[in-house]
Design goal:
This protein is mostly helical. The protein has one domain. The chain has 16 helices and no strands. α5 runs parallel beside α15. The radius of gyration is 21 Å and the shape is globular.
């Protein structure tokens, strides 16, 4: 595959990112309504948190893809990387943190005027605010999070910190580096359980499931980037393609099952979900047919482009919409969930669109990145 049209070639990634964001919000609204029985749709709603796992795979893929065909990076690359990541991620995050704090104070009078009960999702203490500002909420046990969705953003920020080590290991040693990373992740988990056992406290579980324990899912995305670069984006053929395609749904189901299994089995969840998401990325890398073409649908791509803003905004917005709907709309929890989705998702999209334009996008405008100039993989000298 040529390098002439990288934007269209990766449009399906934005589409997958959009579907993952919608899956997460479906899960959140389902939980807001005390997990109603929706028949055949219940498993889809109950597994919506796995959309975050897909985000982690996509993050590893997108960060590593531009350099996966190289074995040496130009001087100063990592300094530039950290500056760009900080400018790209932190300003929208802090603006969304302010949004989650201010929103309940802004809308409380409206609930009072309407004669509705008002219960804010969380009002931050000084300690909670400090933990959120420093992005440590996935490591510190707090009574309540300002925005519970933000735990994944702190994990994402920590991925950025270790990404240079992961990238250098894979660029230098290729598949040996991948195996070393996965072995390190597994040994960390095994060692943790060997010392503390499987009956972990909440704080111990947060450490067990921290950045070191979750390297496998992020590395899966990097592996897919490596495979696509080394094969020129050529889709698997024949029986391998068929088997990989048929295995996607069973792998997601197994990942969902192991996710709720005793903590010692959690690495299996990461492996199953990583292989499933990675298979979608690899099998549809050309974006020319089937699911790849569907994921490149312009509406999905547009949502995917602003999915970070949507993810930052949607939970507090939908929480307070649901808080009002649950008091204004009589009927079943399933009906209230449907009304919340019908009102909350478009409202979240509208707010996210403005947030993307005025808060996120200005930090995406930058000078063109210089080409990564390095010798290709095929010229790596033998050791």
């Amino acid at each position: 595959m040529t390098e002439t049209k990288p934007v269209s070639r990766l449009a399906y990634v934005d589409g997958l990112r959009a579907l993952s964001a919608l899956w997460v919000i479906l899960y959140d609204v389902w939980r807001f309504n005390r997990e109603p029985d929706l028949g055949l749709l219940t498993p889809l709603c109950a597994s919506g948190h796995l959309g975050v796992e897909i985000f982690m795979v996509l993050s590893g893929f997108c960060l590593f893809y531009p350099m996966a065909h190289l074995w040496r990076l130009p001087a100063g690359h990592w300094r530039t990387f950290f500056v760009r990541r900080a400018k790209r991620i932190l300003p929208p995050y802090y603006a969304a943190l302010l949004y989650a704090i201010v929103l309940p104070h802004a809308i409380a009078p409206l609930f009072t005027l309407a004669g509705l009960r008002f219960t804010p999702e969380a009002l931050p203490s000084a300690w909670s605010l400090f933990v959120h500002v420093t992005m440590l909420q996935n490591l510190v046990d707090l009574p309540a999070l300002i925005n519970p969705s933000f735990w994944s953003l702190s994990l994402e920020a920590q991925y950025y910190l270790v990404f240079p080590l992961l990238a250098l290991a894979i660029l230098r040693w290729r598949w040996k580096g991948v195996l070393a990373i996965l072995a390190f992740c597994g040994l960390y988990r095994l060692g943790f359980l060997a010392f503390l056992g499987s009956n972990l406290s909440r704080q111990e579980f947060l450490l067990f499931n921290s950045i070191v324990g979750r390297l496998a899912i992020f590395t899966a995305g990097m592996v897919v980037a490596l495979v696509i670069r080394e094969t020129g984006g050529k889709r698997p053929e024949g029986l391998l393609d068929t088997l990989w395609g048929l295995s996607t749904v069973p792998l997601v189901m197994l990942g969902f099952y192991w996710y709720f299994h005793p903590v010692g089995a959690w690495p299996l969840s990461d492996v199953c979900l990583g292989v499933a998401a990675g298979g979608i990325l690899l099998r549809h890398a050309d974006g020319a047919r089937g699911l790849g073409r569907a994921l490149a649908w312009p509406a999905l791509v547009s949502l995917g482009e602003m999915s970070y803003s949507f993810y930052l905004i949607n939970r507090p917005t939908c929480y307070y919409v649901n808080h009002a709907v649950s008091q204004l709309v009589p009927g079943s929890q399933a009906l209230q969930m449907g009304v919340t989705l019908a009102v909350g998702v478009p409202l979240s999209l509208a707010i996210a669109a403005g947030f993307y334009r005025w808060v996120e996008r200005p930090f995406m405008v930058r000078r063109p990145r210089p080409e990564l100039r390095a010798r290709p993989v095929s010229t790596v000298p033998s050791s």
